[in-house]
C-alpha cells in the first residue's frame, strides 16, 4: 500500500496556473518539479490548446507537465494529453473516466466538511496521488484559501499533494504538519491571476528547501 507515512526525501513542488513563457522559465529556474496548465475555460488562468502546446514545448525533461480539467469533454482531454505527462481532474470525474486516457492522473478533492478521505482514496485507487484543496461552493479550484490541515490523516492510502492558499509565508508550517508528498501553489506566487512573480516563485521554493533541510539534519 502506498502511504503518506513514507516520507519523501524532499517535498516536491508544483506551480499551477502558468500561462506565460517567462513564468515557465522562472518556475523551472527555481526548481519546479511540476507545472500546471489550466484547460478549464472558467478560469482566469485558462490556456487554450494552442497555448498549451507552446508552453509545454518550453518545459525541459524531468519536469512534469500537468493539465487541469473540470468535467470536460474526453475529446479535448485526449488532444491536450499529447502535450502532457499527467492529468489532474478537478470536477466530478469518476475513477473510470480519469483512467480512460492512458496517462497517469491525479484527482483533486475539495475538502468539504463531509468528505471522507479514506473512502476517496479507496475510490480513486488508480490515481497517482490525491491533491487536497480548499472547498468553496461553486469554485472548482484556485481559491487562494487554506483549509484545516489537521483533517488530513497521516495514514492515507495515497500520496498527498497539498494545495489551497499556500505561499512563501505558510508553506513551511504546512509541510511540518502534513508532511505531504508535494505542495501545489497558484495564487500565492502571483502578481495577478495567471501572472507569476519570479520573486515569489523563488521565495516559495526556498521556503520548501529550508524546511526540508531541517528534516534531513
Ligand atoms: O487555478 C484555477 O483557476 C483553477 C480553476 C479550476 C480548477 C482548478 C484550478 N486551479 C487548481 C490548482 O491546482 C491550484 O493550484 C490549487 O487549486 C491551489 O490554488 P491556490 O489556492 O490559488 O494556490
Notable features of this structure?
single chain; eight-stranded parallel barrel; tryptophan biosynthesis; phosphoribosylanthranilate isomerase activity; isomerase; 7 helices; TIM Barrel; binds the ligand O=C(O)c1ccccc1NCC(=O)[C@H](O)[C@H](O)COP(=O)(O)O; alpha/beta; 217 residues; amino-acid biosynthesis; N-(5'-phosphoribosyl)anthranilate isomerase
Quick description:
The protein is of the alpha/beta class. It has helices at residues 21-29, 49-56, 74-81, 95-98, 117-123, 171-178, 198-216, and strands at residues 12-15, 34-38, 64-69, 86-89, 105-110, 130-133, 160-162, 182-185, 190-192, 195-196. Belongs to the TrpF family.
What are the SSEs and their pairings?
Layout: E1 12-15, H1 21-29, E2 34-38, H2 49-56, E3 64-69, H3 74-81, E4 86-89, H4 95-98, E5 105-110, H5 117-123, E6 130-133, E7 160-162, H6 171-178, E8 182-185, E9 190-192, E10 195-196, H7 198-216
Parallel strand pairs: 1-2, 1-8, 2-3, 3-4, 4-5, 5-6, 6-7, 7-8
Antiparallel strand pairs: 9-10
Helix pairs in contact: 6-7
The chain binds the ligand O=C(O)c1ccccc1NCC(=O)[C@H](O)[C@H](O)COP(=O)(O)O.
Explain how this protein is built:
By secondary structure, this protein is of the alpha/beta class. The protein has a single domain, classed as TIM Barrel, CATH 3.20.20.70. It has helices at residues 21-29, 49-56, 74-81, 95-98, 117-123, 171-178, 198-216; strands at 12-15, 34-38, 64-69, 86-89, 105-110, 130-133, 160-162, 182-185, 190-192, 195-196. Helix 4 links the parallel strand 4 (86-89) and strand 5. The protein is globular, with a radius of gyration of 16 Å. The chain binds ligand LARABZUK. Ligand LARABZUK binds next to strand 2 and strand 8. Ligand LARABZUK binds at residues 16-17, 36, 38, 40, 43, 45, 68, 70, 90, 133, 140-144, 163-166, 184-188. It is an enzyme of class 5 (isomerase). This is N-(5'-phosphoribosyl)anthranilate isomerase. It comes from Billgrantia aerodenitrificans. Keywords: Amino-acid biosynthesis, Aromatic amino acid biosynthesis, Isomerase, Tryptophan biosynthesis.
Amino acid at each position: 500500500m502506498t502511504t503518506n507515512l513514507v516520507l519523501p526525501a524532499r517535498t516536491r513542488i508544483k506551480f499551477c496556473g502558468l500561462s506565460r513563457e517567462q513564468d515557465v522559465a522562472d518556475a523551472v529556474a527555481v526548481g519546479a518539479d511540476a507545472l500546471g496548465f489550466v484547460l478549464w475555460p472558467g478560469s482566469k488562468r485558462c490556456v487554450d490548446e494552442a497555448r498549451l502546446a507552446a508552453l509545454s514545448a518550453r518545459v525541459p525533461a524531468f519536469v512534469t507537465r500537468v493539465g487541469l480539467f473540470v468535467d470536460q469533454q474526453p475529446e479535448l482531454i485526449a488532444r491536450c494529453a499529447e502535450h502532457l505527462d499527467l492529468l489532474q481532474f478537478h470536477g466530478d470525474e469518476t475513477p473510470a473516466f480519469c483512467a480512460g486516457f492512458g496517462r497517469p492522473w491525479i484527482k483533486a478533492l475539495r475538502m468539504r466538511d463531509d468528505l471522507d478521505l479514506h473512502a476517496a482514496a479507496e475510490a480513486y485507487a488508480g490515481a497517482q496521488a490525491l491533491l487536497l484543496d480548499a472547498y468553496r461552493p461553486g469554485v472548482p479550484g484556485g481559491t487562494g484559501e487554506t483549509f484545516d490541515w489537521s483533517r488530513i490523516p497521516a495514514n492515507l492510502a495515497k500520496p498527498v499533494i497539498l494545495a489551497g492558499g499556500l505561499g512563501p509565508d505558510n508553506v513551511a508550517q504546512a509541510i511540518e504538519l502534513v508532511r505531504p508528498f508535494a505542495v501545489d501553489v497558484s495564487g500565492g506566487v502571483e502578481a495577478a491571476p495567471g501572472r507569476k512573480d519570479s520573486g515569489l516563485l523563488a521565495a516559495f521554493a526556498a521556503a520548501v528547501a529550508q524546511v526540508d533541510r531541517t528534516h534531513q539534519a
